[in-house]
Design goal:
alpha+beta; eight-stranded antiparallel beta sheet; 14% strand
């Protein structure tokens, strides 16, 4: 790659990372701030496609075999790709490739539950115990606490994946019940009192899956299909648990071992039973853009329930969490709405504008690589901030060093428990 281009990307990535500075925003009870105004797609600068392609190429130099991005903008489609989707055949990665979306599944689960609120079958402020008696040890934990990661339920994946490759191999073909996963969490002390702090935990969205099954009498797969996949005609979106294969054309996912220099592990085939309603959906860039456009465009829930999803708890200086929904504040002042996903072999970012009319989904087919994850944040900058070459100076409020390592910030953003890497 051209040296100058690479330098520009490095600067852009560094400035994006600086903006992700962890200023340790105290995650008290939800603050419910309102959103910045005027983030409608029409008011956004044109996407920077050259910048986006450069970010994708950079990802392939940082350890991702391949990377793709797709922008859907009021009927205009823009795609970019770099690298390969299969290290054995060396096939080029492409926009039609299906992949595992990890925690973006949480947004699907939240939508199902908010539709149930719309149908008066669920009350966000009721105790989980009201619907699932005896499951949790603390009756003060509400449905809202669970969907906003404020329950204090320990994330059992922290201990499960303390060693990334052996932890993964131990569960890749396992089938867990939801109860078993909750029990794994309850072996550990809770991280906070209900409602007192934000602490990202897969356990919360396992409980969400249990609520879906209890209230509807159907599996989460059936509910995703009936309430999201079919109405939005998402032809490339699947919930196949406990099947281990991705149907049709797909990108292989390559897990990066903890030991530097070790060979990537092909992690494509797995049950994802350790995540289920917290992370087991399969999709494409097209379908995820359609999903978040529909959600923010108000086509999946009532306006009242979308407003509930957008009651924000601070995570760090640039990220907030609603109900199964993230908000990221970009360097140009634009806020975008969506989710990130990390499942072995796949990192995904999927975000849309306030009105849902411009969406970006980006995939890199590796994981457990903090550099790749952070560089991916650059796809949001290119897609929503357009051409911005000037590096932004971040002055830390404390006067201490502001350049917290990219690795910490990104891991915190996806799942804080992984930060110990
Ligand atoms: C699980 C470990 C990450 C991923 C996780 N994913 O909680 C949910 C999400 C569904 O937020 C694994 N990391 C990796 C490790 C770290 O094993 N020791 O990066 O492949 O999407």
């Amino acid at each position: 790659m051209d040296r100058k281009v690479l330098r520009t990307v490095r600067r852009a990535t560094a400035s994006a990372a600086a903006l992700l500075t962890l200023t340790a925003v105290p995650a008290h009870a939800a603050t419910h701030e309102s959103d910045p105004t005027s983030n409608a797609a029409a008011a956004l600068p044109a996407p920077d496609m050259a910048g986006l392609r450069t970010v994708l190429r950079t990802l392939t130099t940082q350890g991702a075999p391949g990377a793709i991005a797709r922008i859907d903008d009021q009927g205009t489609v823009r795609t970019a790709a770099a690298g390969i989707d299969d290290r054995a055949t060396r096939r080029a990665i492409g926009d039609a490739d299906r992949f595992r979306i990890g925690s973006i599944t949480k947004s699907f689960s939240a939508v199902v539950l908010l539709q149930l609120v719309d149908a008066h079958k669920l009350n966000l402020d009721a105790s989980v115990d009201h619907y699932l008696p005896g499951l949790l040890p603390d009756k003060r934990i509400t449905v809202r606490h669970v969907l906003s990661h404020r329950s204090g339920l320990y994330d059992y994946t922290n201990s499960m994946f303390a060693s990334s490759v052996s932890g993964f191999e131990a569960v890749r073909n396992k089938v867990f019940t939801y109860h078993q996963l909750v029990q794994l969490s309850l072996r550990h002390a809770r991280t906070n009192a209900p409602g007192a702090a934000y602490s990202y935990s897969n356990t919360n969205f396992v409980v969400a899956g249990m609520l879906i099954e209890k209230l509807t009498g159907h599996s989460v797969g059936t509910e995703y299909r009936n309430r999201v996949i079919k109405p939005l005609k998402l032809r490339d979106t699947f919930y196949v648990h406990p099947d281990t294969k991705i149907p049709g054309r797909y990108a292989h996912g390559y897990l990066t071992p903890d030991r530097a220099g070790a060979q990537l592990v092909d992690a494509t085939n797995q049950t994802v039973s350790w995540a289920q309603s917290a992370g087991a959906v399969i999709s494409t860039t097209h379908d995820l853009n359609t999903f978040f456009s529909a959600l923010l465009g108000g086509r999946l829930t009532s306006a009242a329930q979308l407003a509930q999803m957008e009651r924000w708890t601070p995570v760090n200086s640039t990220t907030r969490y609603g109900l199964g929904l993230r908000r990221r504040d970009l360097s140009c002042g634009v806020s975008v709405y969506g989710h990130t996903g990390a499942v072995q072999g796949f990192y995904t970012y999927s975000f849309t504008s306030k009105d849902g009319r411009r969406s970006l989904t980006a995939l890199a087919n590796t994981s457990n690589n903090g550099t790749v994850l952070n560089t991916m944040a650059g796809t949001l900058e290119s897609a929503f901030c357009g051409k911005r070459t000037k590096a932004i100076q971040v002055s830390p409020p404390t006067g201490r060093g502001s350049f917290v390592t990219e690795r910490n910030v990104a891991y915190e953003d996806i799942a804080p428990g992984i930060a110990r890497d």
